[in-house]
Amino acid sequence: MDSLYFTNNEPPTTRTFSRVIFLNQEGFAPNGRKRAVIKVPCEKFDIENEYGTVVYSGETVHFGYDECSGDDVYIADFSDFHSDGVYTLVTDKGERSLSFTVGSGVYRPVLDKLVKAFYYLRCGSELPEQYAGKFARPTCHTEKAVEYGGDGTLFEVSGGWHDAGDYGRYVTTGACAAAHLMYAYKLFPDVFDKQQLGIPPQGVPDVLAEVKYELDWLLKMQRPDGSVWHKLTTMRHAPFVMPHEDREQLYLFPPSSMAAADLAATCALGAMVFSEKNPHYSEKLKAAAELSWKWLEENPEFIGFSNPEGCNTGNYSERTDVDNRFWAAAQLYALTGEEKYHTAVDDAMIGFSMSDIGWSSVGGLGSLALLTSEREISDRLRARIKRDFNSKAEELKGLCLTSGYGAAMGSWHYIWGSSMNLLKHAMIFIITDIINKNPAYSDCIASQLDYLLGCNATGFSFISGCGEFSINSPHLRPTFADGIDECIPGYVSGGPNANPSDYDAAKLIPQGTPPMKCFADCVSCYSLNEVAIYWNSPAVFLLAYMADRS
Ligand code: G3I
Ligand code: 9MR
Ligand code: ZN
After folding, report:
1. Over 23-89, what HEC string results?
2. Is the pLDDT confidence value at 7 over 80?
3. Is residue 64 part of a domain?
4. Atom of ligand 1 nearest to the CA of 315
5. Residue of 19, 137, 210, 323 with fewest CB within 10 Å of its CB?
6. In 10 A of CB 216, how many CB atoms?
7. pTM, 2 dp
8. Cα 317 from Cα 207, distance rounded (Å)
9. How far is CA 391 from CA 18, 270, 395, 396, 428, in A?
10. CB burial of residue 231 (10 Å; 0-12, 13-18, 19+)
């Protein structure tokens, strides 16, 4: 989807939200915090049930000017309303919200859709109607790959998830997304134990079956010496065709030390997660993790990645690998208890955040490895982890409280993939509460979910198929090429980006638009509205936490 401007010679049609009340369009748990944001003057509000009967009345609080959206907003809080049902919020001037639910199961379907979205991204296998329904499609990308610049030897490296709206498969983002899902499972197992997603069963909870699909592919990306190819893509992004129609040559691009470290970490984590359920597989993952660690020891220098001439698929370049190596050491220490990993962890503690938790900065995943393990760690290390999480959470809480929409986001956070920033921040709040054994940030956590599901200045729910006014035209090849109007549900959009850099977004978003409003639900706008596995995965973590509490 190059440009809708180019193809039609006129602006693409995009939907805009026509109401003035913004709230979580899926709804709230009976005992949860419940809020709506109203962008016109309003003193009083009612909650009406499905039959138009007023079941609750309240007064708003004038929050004032919200910097990131440019809106002057009022807050309607009805947290002390606890009855199950489907409702609408109505202001004293007669403006109505979209409908929302109050009920203890409210977040389960959202969580299910978010996890199932990974299934629909499976590469190298058919999605039969039995599991994929109307989104069924043939298998894709099963041709063998060659090494870029190599001797033409063919490698069988099929499998894994498509990374995003494109058909590339990248080790660091895949490893990070799989790790988020495994940590969601480790911390909130009850939520997943009975989950029925309608995917091929593996004798383990479905979320782990889905993770295994990615781990199987990651294992193929490891070379015999333990080094790991950085990515597997065609030379250029495919046109907007179905995956099985993309038949260009696949290339394995040179190894990076980030890829080796992230693979070691994720396989070590997988070895722990699968140890009881599939011991043979667990051993295989452990061996892979150890092999890549050995390669990292033998190759202590940073080996980065940038695209060779002529290649335009994702770069996922990083400037350092110290955080990646820390994560690998921490995860291997948690798995084996061997002192050499503890030493490596202790030695690595300089120059990176220990609470950051996305693919480009994974120190927080190393911290999670240590926090969730029984292994002894030095007081110095424990103190550092606590300090990094607590100070970050306090800083983010400050942003959350000064945002009219409750987003823990400063204007600088609205970049390509801003949803990942928001979701990373939600994860940091959750982990800090776990560290302190005190739910001090639960309101902040709820606010991040509210934003994602519609309580933001665009009015969109940023998860496809969740909420009445949700994104439906993401930059996602199959969703465009399948000829079905409805988008596959469960995808998190990249979200508002104050520096829109694709051709259409740059034209569509007027200069000076406030950061939170720099968004369009437009298929060609990849810098605003693409989807990605590593934007879905922290959302799974957040929804698992929310479902666990409701
Ligand atoms: O970190 C800087 C920050 O310091 C600066 O103030 C800010 C101002 O724009 O930019 C920040 O960098 C941004 C960076 O993402 C942060 O991660 C860049 O502007 C932005 O262009 C960059 O976008 C990345 C994009 O690829 C382009 O490289 C996205 O993070 C990344 O998610 C995205 O990944 C693509 C893959 O290449 C291909 N597959 C799809 C995937 C999703 O869109
Ligand atoms: O579809 C691609 C998307 O996944 C990437 O995030 C984006 C940036 O690398 O690139 C998209 O592909 C575009 C390519 O870069 C330029 N030509 C148009 C492509 C979209 O169809
Ligand atoms: Zn594929």
Report:
1. ECCCEECCCCCCEEEECCCCCEEEEEECCCCEEEEEECEEEEEECCCCEEEEEEECCCCCCCEEEEE
2. no
3. no
4. 37
5. 19
6. 15
7. 0.98
8. 29
9. 39, 30, 6, 9, 10
10. buried
Ligand 2 geometric centre to CA of 527 (Å): 9
Give me 403's structure tokens. 């945002």
474 lines ligand 1 (CB under 6 A): no
Grouping H, G, I as helix, E, B as strand and the rest as coil, residue 357 is coil
d(CA 508, CA 256): 37
In the chain, the amino acid numbered 64 is G
Q: Give a yes or no: residue 335 inside a domain.
A: yes
8 Å CB contact between 213 and 236: no
CA distance 201 to 540: 20
How many C-alpha atoms does 208 have within 13 Å on its Cβ side? 25
Counting ligand 1 atoms within 8 A of each CB, the residue from 320, 416, 537 with the most, and so the one to mutate, is 416
- Taking all residues of the chain, what is their mean pLDDT, rounded to a whole number? 97
- Residues that are catalytic: 166, 475, 521, 530
Place of tokens 């296998």: 125
8, pLDDT greater than 80: no
Residue nearest to atom 12 of ligand 2 (CA): 237
The single-letter code of the amino acid at 489 is: P
Residue 54 lies in a domain: no
Instruction: Output the six-digit token pair for 341.
Output: 């990993």
Residue 158 has pLDDT above 80, yes or no: yes
Q: Is the dihedral of CA 245, 251, 253, 258 positive or negative?
A: positive
- CATH number of the domain enclosing 447: 1.50.10.10
36 assigned to some structural domain: no
> How many structural domains compose the chain?
1
- Whether the pLDDT of residue 6 is over 70: the answer is no
Residue range 131-147: average pLDDT? Answer: 98
Mutation probe of ligand 2 site: the residue of 1, 166, 245 with most atoms within 8 A of C-beta = 166
Q: What is the domain range of residue 174?
A: 108-453+530-549
Eight-class DSSP state of 244:
G
Q: pLDDT (tens digit, 9 = 90+) per residue, 492-506?
A: 999 999 999 999 999
Q: What radius of gyration do the chain's Cα atoms show?
A: 23
3-state secondary structure of 18: coil
- Backbone φ/ψ region at 356: left (φ over 0), alpha (ψ -120 to 50), beta: beta
